[in-house]
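User: For a benchmark we're assembling, each entry needs the component sequences followed by a predicted structure for the full assembly. Here are entry 17's components. Please fill in the structure.
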Amino acid sequence: MALLELRGLNKHFGGLHVTNSVDLVLEAGEIHCLIGPNGAGKSTLFRLILGEHHPGSGDILFAGENITALKPFARIHRGLSVKFQVPGVFKGLSVRQNLEIALQRTHRSVELARGIDRLLTFLNLEAEQMQTAGNLSHGQKQWLEIGMAISLKPQLLLLDEPTAGMSPEETHQTGEMVQRLNADGMTVLAIEHDMAFVRQVAQRVTVLHLGQVFAQGSIDEIVADERVAAIYLGQAHA
Amino acid sequence: MNGLPGFLRRLEGPQTVGRGPAFWITFAIVFAIACAYPLFSDGYTVGNTVYFFVWVFIALSLCVIWGYGGSLSFGQTAFFGIAGYSYGILTLNFGSAYGFTLAALVLAVVIAALFALLLGYFMFFGRIAGVFLGIVTLAVTLMLERFMAQTAGPEWRIGAARLNGFNGMSAMPPLTIPWSGGDIVLLADIGLYYAVLGLLLLVYLGLRILMNSSFGNVIVAIRENPERAEMLGYDVRKYQLITFVIGAALAGISGVLYTAWGQYITPSSMGMTAAALPLIWVAVGGRSDLTSTVIGTLVVLAAFQALTIYGSQYALVFMGVLLVLTVLIAPNGLVLGAMNLISRLVARRSKGDV
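Assistant: Structure for entry 17:
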């Protein structure tokens, strides 16, 4: 069953077609990676899905409902959640308060405190819970934001370069976490440049190039595709 | 504080400086002194102290909108003026019998809040943010000042109330509490002092609870990162609008109390200087904390008045210097900086004891 369906999405800024009639179907329960060279339109596609940008034409369907006209917060209520490329934590607030803000919409009092404690354990940030989030290391900030994103228990989790700035060890741990969440039924769409991460988690890969879907398939099919190598992997391994 | 009902526990929290027995004992002592003070002073001085208290509400309005919410409003004086004039128009027309002045207080604040609802709707849902919010709000208050300034002619009247241009509207009745043994008229001395002190206590504690509630959490989250807040499922613009309306109501309370205090209001209460001064009190005190804002406002106002004796121009220059110094030395506010320093020292000492 399709959880997310993009139909002929167009977005242009002036004369620049950032996404050009993109069709993409995301099956419920899969981990799907979105790759492509810089400027391919990956992040714009995320912003369209989240409602921060509005498409010139085309439709976005989520769990069978057309959400193209919905406001961003309303899409979150439907079961979407996102971790941004640049860690979007509340820098001036404590780690604990960051998680409280994420959870308080759906949890109250005792349940809320328990939920925060569970997340702190899960993220391995118990010792840092009273620290100001702005003082965390880059990797910890990434984890904190991932924690806030998954605390909403979304049906679809969007990850924009979840492992940027992480060590290979941390990247691997993040990959394992994504797989655990997926095993619990969460569908994941990730933008990622780190091919080790993509290999580790992706069940399907879509290559975006110049705002269009360029290729789609398993990671092995994508790596074997010479056209993809020419535009993307070729550059990366050059 | 675990024995208290849920909402009272919110008197303390991450959004407000000051917690634990030490803070609340100090608070109780300060409040007791404030209650006893009129007994040891004369009517004029007490009336003057009320004047300081009156301004704290507009300072708190900026604290909420700017310090907590992160939206700089340069036009809180617009709501101050609207509420002040509304109180004047209502009471000049309907008098002060049957406690109507108290109803007029509430009505005037509601009128200011409704105006903020309208203005805020177009600003926030029109995606006006950051410095532009400051520009639009400043433009609105200056426009209101200009408008009121040209209402000197006799044709500018609403019922019995002459708007009176730059001469100002005057002779409205002071706040009056209906009482069986004869109405209690709150003139600008001891009676009004206790009424305003009580209102200030209620508003201060109420705001502490509000800011430490889940609502307050969302407000500071929007200040820190509006995009992230939206992506956690919060309707950011709705929260900004509610905060703006709450702030307008607070500024409106100042406006009504000011008008009732002096039985007088003029267009210059919405002018450039009037609009800029609250920003300085709040910035110098510490805009992101309620207690710092209250203390900072009272101290700066008292200093300003003391300096005015030597000439109001010098006092204004001093205000400017104070603002620059604050920005350079303690960008989060002098009072807030000092309070954080004290709590750090206390924490270090109690750690040393263990």
